[in-house]
Design brief:
There is one protein chain. The chain is of the alpha/beta class and 374 residues long. It has 2 domains: 173 residues, D-Maltodextrin-Binding Protein, domain 2; 150 residues, 3-Layer(aba) Sandwich (D-Maltodextrin-Binding Protein, domain 2), CATH 3.40.190. The strands form 3 sheets. Strands 4, 5, 6, 7, 13 and 14 form a 6-stranded mixed β-sheet that branches. The chain has a 5-stranded mixed β-sheet with strand order 10-9-11-8-12, covered by helices on one side. Strands 1-2-3 form a 3-stranded antiparallel β-sheet. This is ABC transporter substrate-binding protein. Keywords: Periplasm, Signal.
Length: 374
């Protein structure tokens, strides 16, 4: 095991052998050494993990609902650090499909993806199905609040998105900063009315978001009692955006930030988005290593990199609200730290990676539908 001297008080220099860069001296093959800085809180034997990863096939497969474009900055930064990983493939699949593939591959004992992205409703299932994921303790976990970084065993939260209110500035001339602002403007317009888009609670995404918010701040039901009778449910943020652009909807409560923020930037002032100061649901994304990963050591390196400062900066650059504090600002985007700093602490409602109580969900659904039907 070979280590360099301390470069800074917080970093250690580690020499990693890069198997793809070979040269010959006097008939002996030598691997070129790549100088990698590791934080001082990494274990002293981390070099052995790098060595083991280099002996794998230089590939990595990710099951994720995010696009290749969102992953590209992360892949590039990771491969710059570990150039022996030559091929990273992202399979763009939704959360429930990730779970079903994990179960199928586990039951058959077949090789699977390496890194799996997990949404809250799937993370709740993995609490009781730990055989689907590889046990791993990341050294980066120590740099985060314990109640944020690991929402379920062997799962690591890496980004937490605020669901935003989007609105059409030509229809709503007054600035919007809260859910109450939407309700107040509906009242001002009277029966001639404004139409507001909401997400359809038949989807687990929408149900968990609205339930978490209104369970956290039940006083907001007063505002939704005004909004819901003037609303229509939509199946996606994309459809909400289209109807905001055409003016069919004056506002949308709530939308994915990854859909709305780029649209605002390109709208020439027609659209605006806000993180509601009286209550905002936040939805996280976590990653685990698949139990049947054919490249478990490379997967561990990638997971650690995602949680590192440079990995989190790349995640933010790709358009996702990374959760590490102290990241450099990216124009038109925000980190979790920036989003939560913009509103009161009691307005932050983070969707848990746990099963929602069935009886309470049933009562919530009945109340929601009855309110919308008024």
């Amino acid at each position: 095991m070979k280590y360099g001297p301390l470069l800074q008080a917080t970093h250690r220099s580690v020499l990693a052998l890069t198997g793809s860069m070979m040269f010959f001296i006097g008939g002996w093959a030598h691997a070129a050494e790549t100088n990698i800085e590791l934080p001082s809180y990494y274990p002293s034997d981390y070099q052995s993990l790098i060595d083991a990863a280099q002996k794998e096939d230089g590939s990595l497969v990710i099951y994720s609902s995010y696009t290749q474009e969102a992953w590209n900055p992360v892949f590039k930064a990771f491969q710059d650090k570990y150039p022996f990983v030559k091929n990273i493939k992202n399979l763009d699949i939704e959360g429930e499909e990730v779970y079903q593939r994990l179960r199928m591959e586990s039951s058959r004992g077949t090789p699977s993806g390496d890194i799996v992205e997990i949404q809250p409703n799937i993370g709740a299932k993995l609490r009781d199905e730990q055989e689907l994921v590889l046990p791993y303790t990341s050294p980066e976990a120590s740099q985060y609040p314990s109640d944020l970084i690991q929402p379920y065993p062997n799962g690591y939260q890496y980004a937490v998105s605020a669901l935003v209110i989007g609105y059409n500035t030509k229809i709503l001339p007054k600035p919007v900063g809260s859910i109450k602002d939407i309700a107040d403007q509906i009242k001002e317009f009277g029966d001639s009315g404004l139409m507001v888009g909401v997400r359809n609670i038949s989807s687990s995404f929408a149900l968990t978001a609205y339930y978490t918010l209104l369970n956290h701040k039940p006083e907001l039901w007063e505002q939704f009692e005004t909004i819901l009778p003037h609303s229509k449910p939509e199946g996606s943020s994309g459809s909400l955006l289209t109807k905001l652009q055409t003016g069919e909807y004056a506002a949308a409560v709530f939308m994915s930030d990854s859909t709305m923020l780029p649209a605002v930037a390109q709208s020439g002032g027609l659209l605006a988005a806000v993180i509601a100061k009286d209550g905002t649901p936040f939805l996280g994304g976590a990653v685990s290593i698949a139990a049947n990963s054919p490249r478990p050591n490379t997967a561990k390196l990638f997971l650690d990199f995602m949680l590192s400062h440079e990995g989190q900066q790349a995640i933010l650059k790709g358009g996702r609200p990374a959760i590490r504090n102290g990241l450099e600002k990216v124009d038109g985007l925000y980190s979790f730290e920036e989003a939560t700093s913009a509103i009161p602490a009691d307005a932050v409602a983070i969707v848990p990676f746990s099963e929602l109580p069935a009886d309470q969900v049933s009562a919530f659904t009945e109340r929601w539908k009855a309110t919308a039907a008024k």
